[in-house]
Amino acid sequence: MFSATAVLAAPVDRVAELLLTAHPGPVGPANGWLLYRSGYPAGPATLRGGPYRFEVVADDARTLYLDVDRDRKTAALQGGWWYRGEYEVAAEASGQTRLTYRVRNVAAQPTWLVALSHRLFIGYRRTMRRALIALCADIERDLGAGATQSPRARPSDELC
Questions:
Q1: C-alpha span between 46 and 57 (Å, rounded)
Q2: From CA 26, how far away is CA 154, in angstroms rounded?
């Protein structure tokens, strides 16, 4: 559906370690960092399962899944209806890291129901790019990367 890419001033291995660290237990800065930083779900959450697919449990109910593929350097958050947000970490020639965020529709229902329920996704691409830039800033801050400039979002019209 949508894709955005940003480049951040941090080494790929450190970024991958931060984004892909997941094991059964409470979500926090050292476990399920993507969830911890996003603030979703609101309140305490726990990861169950693993090592590749984790249920995210809050208030004794599964809210979504976290999929982690350390070999491919990818993580994905998938809800119960249509949403799957995939994050891919890759090295840049400059020693920096390229982070690509893709939103996919995994609904079994007709696609038009998803689009209609989200007001045809008007403004979604811009919101997604801003969220990616904020995520990269959080990564750089948490890793102490000391970026000299803000992460750059690269426009992408890739259809997923």
A1: 5
A2: 34
Return the bridge partners of 4, or none. Answer: 101
What is the number of residues in the chain?
Answer: 160
- Comparing CA positions, the residue from 76, 102, 96 lying closest to residue 19 is 76
**For 47-101, what is each residue's pLDDT tens digit?**
999 999 999 998 877 778 999 999 999 999 998 767 788 999 999 988 899 999 9
Strand 53-58 relative to strand 61-69, pairing: antiparallel
List the one residue out of 66, 75, 19, 74 whose CA is nearest residue 41: 66
> Is 92 in contact with 99 (CB distance < 8 Å)?
no
User: Residue 80 in contact with residue 64, Cβ under 8 Å?
Assistant: yes
Amino acid residing at 119: R
Count of beta carbons in the 10 Å neighbourhood of residue 116: 11
The amino acid occupying position 87 is Y
pTM comes to 0.81
The encoded tokens of residue 119 equal 């007001």
